[in-house]
């Protein structure tokens, strides 16, 4: 079913009310809604190619690319559509169209990778780790598994994501244990070489040791973070891992 369009009224309702009406009520309200004659998917395909042929790779083109994705055109299909059209509309126009299509379908690619990573482990990825986002380079997710006797959290890092250098302080006991459950990542203590991590690896982090951990540059990574009970415990967040240092990892 075609979505009721209000873009014309929102942008030009007062300046050009008739144009706004024709855009919202006729083009999108009548033409796009004739799904018994041509599906939304096929109308998106025709529209994308028509705009590409004119070289109109502006905000309206992005809108229709997004609509095409929402109407069922896959990343593989849009690549084939633009490749085919390139021979008829021109190579420079195709390059411009591909640049924008890559951006529109990039989110789908990331979601596919996230779903694949989730399928590799029994623990949930959880919600975006917004509460600690300021201490991470990149996006991470947090799923509390136990908060009663011992704190256990599944921490998931997108490719390239890692936390800042930090220290688990404790007057007695304390520290942290990492249990790697999916993907590939790294752990490094201050003054030592990075340690590559894989599912099944366990890292014991004593209190007062400065360290960081996170995903490999090209791979999702998840580990359970187990809080070791102690007295007078606290976390100290330090500087980010330098980008040039991280890029040396593979």
From TrEMBL:
SUPFAM superfamilies given in the database record: AhpD-like (SSF69118), RmlC-like cupins (SSF51182)
Q: Which domain of life is it from?
A: Bacteria
Question: Entry's Gene3D superfamilies?
Answer: AhpD-like (1.20.1290.10), Jelly Rolls (2.60.120.10)
Cupin type-2 domain residues are 155-215
Residue span(s) of domain Carboxymuconolactone decarboxylase-like = 17-103
Xref: InterPro entries: AhpD-like (IPR029032), CMD-like (IPR003779), Cupin_2 (IPR013096), HNL-like_cupin (IPR047263), RmlC-like_jellyroll (IPR014710), RmlC_Cupin_sf (IPR011051)
> Per the record, a Pfam family?
CMD
This protein is called Carboxymuconolactone decarboxylase family protein
């Amino acid at each position: 079913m075609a979505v009721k369009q209000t873009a014309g009224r929102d942008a030009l309702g007062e300046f050009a009310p008739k144009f706004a009406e024709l855009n919202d009520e006729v083009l999108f309200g009548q033409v796009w809604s004739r799904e018994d004659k041509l599906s939304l998917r096929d109308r998106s395909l025709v529209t994308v190619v028509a705009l590409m042929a004119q070289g109109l790779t502006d905000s309206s083109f992005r809108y229709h690319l997004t609509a095409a994705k929402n109407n069922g055109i896959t990343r593989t299909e849009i690549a084939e559509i633009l490749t085919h059209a390139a021979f008829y509309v021109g190579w420079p126009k195709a390059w411009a169209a591909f640049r924008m299509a890559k951006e529109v379908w990039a989110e789908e690619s990331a979601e596919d990778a996230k779903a694949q990573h989730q399928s590799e482990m029994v623990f949930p990825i959880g919600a975006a780790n917004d509460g600690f986002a300021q201490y991470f380079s990149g996006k991470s997710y947090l799923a509390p598994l136990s908060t009663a006797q011992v704190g256990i959290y599944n921490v998931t890092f997108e490719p390239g994501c890692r936390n800042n250098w930090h220290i688990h302080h404790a007057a007695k006991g304390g520290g942290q244990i990492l249990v790697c459950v999916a993907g590939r990542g790294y752990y490094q203590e201050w003054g030592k070489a990075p340690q590559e991590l894989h599912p099944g690896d366990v890292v014991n982090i004593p209190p007062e040791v400065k360290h960081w951990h996170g995903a490999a540059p090209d791979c999702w990574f998840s580990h359970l973070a187990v809080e070791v009970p102690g007295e007078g415990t606290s976390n100290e967040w330090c500087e980010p891992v330098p980008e040039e240092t991280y890029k040396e990892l593979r």
